[in-house]
Amino acid sequence: MDDAPETLEIAEFLRQHPPFGGLSNAELAALIRALEVRYYRRGTTITTAGEENAWFSVVRSGAVELRLGGSDLNARLGEGGCFGYPSLLRNGSAQNEAVALEDSLVYRIAKPAFLATVSGHPEFRAFFEVDEAARLRRAVDRMRQTGMGREGSADTLGAHAAIGSLVRRTGIVTGDPAMTVSQAATLMTQEDVSTLPICAGGRLVGIVTDKDLRRRVLGAGLDLSSPLSAIMTADPVTASPDTPILTALITMAERQIHHLPILDPAGDVVAIVSSNDILSRLGSNALHIAKAISAAANSGQVADATSQLPQALTGLVAAGVDADHVSRYVSTIGEGAHCRILELGEEKLGPPPVPYALVCFGSLARSEQALGSDQDNGFILGEGYDSARHDAYFAELARHLCDGLNAAGYRYCPGNIMATNPTYRRTADEWATIFRGWIESPNPQAVLESTIFFDMRALSGEKSLVDGLRREVFAAAAKNGIFLSFIARAAATTRVPLGFFRNFLLQDDADEGRVLDLKTQAIAPIVDIARTHALARKLVATNTAERLAGAAACESMSRDAARDLAACFEFVRDVRFRHQAEQIARGEAPSNKLDPAILSRFDREHLRDAFRLIRDQLDKLRSQFAGGVT
């Protein structure tokens, strides 16, 4: 490359903006040799719609406005913005008129040089051939396939492999239900196995482990001539060889199990994978935390276990685990903490006087938690509840739960949405009345404050109380167009942090300065969009990705829109988890806020794509459900 100062300055500028950073020195030099620098006064037409265009242009400074057909605003470009390429690629006339919105300096590259680079560099061509949505989907696919996040990192631990890749032993030792405990112990010793699948008629019906022999036989004084059917875990959870390791991790953490039988398509047992097999692959203490929570003898021990969660998260991120699995894992630990602390409360206070369900709202209900989440929970009280006789018990149980969760890192809710607040400790009929009030007599502020309650999910207790309530609420919401319009308007109030020139619009934070808030400015609006479609179509899912898929399946949303928003959701959460992992490594408290200056070019550009897509979908949501009015 020419070492002239001007040439070096141009090269340095281009490399700062996609897709020039991926070009070799020789490829970049060829473009610069065909480049001319032009200055345009404000209001000057650079390219005329309908006329032949011979230049690929890059804004060096200033601003350029693109007007489709010469009249309708299409885009406004700032520093690094590219234009003129669609007509070059299709070898036709320009569709956009490009006008200098202010005094501007533009790099113009001659058509032959641009097309030569396009022809010889597939990634360079792909950048210009796709829109924001396709670029973002490609970025997410790249991360999922290779563990790539920021530039230069990769999944070297095989976290995305199938669980069948962990199988080392060929042949599987099995027992049958009629075999005696003594015979099984002898067989397991001879074959040097710690887990014995139990099969009948060629089908898996149970599983016995060393722990079962210790606890259910020796510890219980059971006769060694007893059949295995008396001590086996019947109908165990299973997986297929192509189940992702990450999915197996979440399943084992959720079910608090440590051995997973692997069945082939014919239903035959081909292997047993243990939690240690997965932990060895991931290099993480992820499953140990779930085990420690389930075995905790008091709330303090639950807190000790959850204190390891930040390090587990950094291990999963380092292993290239995608954002959805990380979030589901973090949520699984949160759910386990809620359930175990509640169990300990019942052990202390005695059995509940009437049936009830512990419910959660918000991110935990959607299985989308990150670190630093606060509490959002309540009780649904069942048949026979009498406030005068029973509320003292549930008030004390709620205090035990919320205090224990706060000690375990799940902060008290700033809005007091917790079971300790009598407002969120109600019978099913009382909850139904509250929801009907929001639906039948909506007002903007009440709807804005109520949206997370429509993500209600049961964690423990009589889950049928929640199922019935959700059916009633969603049926009422789907029939009320006015309520849906309020929900859509509430979602559309989000200020997407992207200006006309694709610059980030930052928030002022007292502690962190000028920042992007990924939770409120990017994640929350996608959640709101998915929730609105779920309410409108009575979709039972609470998880955002599942809601988007359901909205596409029932044609409430186009498949392209659902796919694009799912890619946005995955990418933004991936950026958040990597940011939180870096904060943990520096000894800082994890947050959802960051200075975009710390991000790689890859992340900055794709975040811009994500924000543009979110803004477009919020506009569509407002048009579809709120008549275009906010």
Describe the structure.
The protein has 630 residues and is an alpha+beta fold. It folds into four domains: 5-129, Jelly Rolls; 163-282, CBS-domain (Roll), CATH 3.10.580.10; 322-438 and 450-470, Beta Polymerase, domain 2, CATH 3.30.460.10; 490-625, Four Helix Bundle (Hemerythrin (Met), subunit A), CATH 1.20.120. 49% of the residues lie in helices and 15% in strands. It is built from 24 helices and 20 strands. The protein has a four-stranded antiparallel beta sheet. Strand 15 (377-381), helix 16 and strand 16 (425-427) form a beta-alpha-beta unit. Helix 13 (309-318) runs antiparallel to helix 14, helix 17 (428-440) packs parallel to helix 19 and helix 20 (481-492) runs antiparallel to helix 24 (601-625). The relative contact order is 0.08.
User: Which oligomerization state do the chains in this entry correspond to?
Assistant: single chain
Ranges with pLDDT <50 over ≥5 residues? 148-157
- The total domain count is 4
Query: Separation of termini?
Result: 54 Å
Number of strands: 20
Shape: globular
Q: How much strand?
A: 15-25%
CATH fold-type name of the largest domain: Beta Polymerase, domain 2
CATH top-level class of the largest domain: Alpha Beta
Number of helices: 24
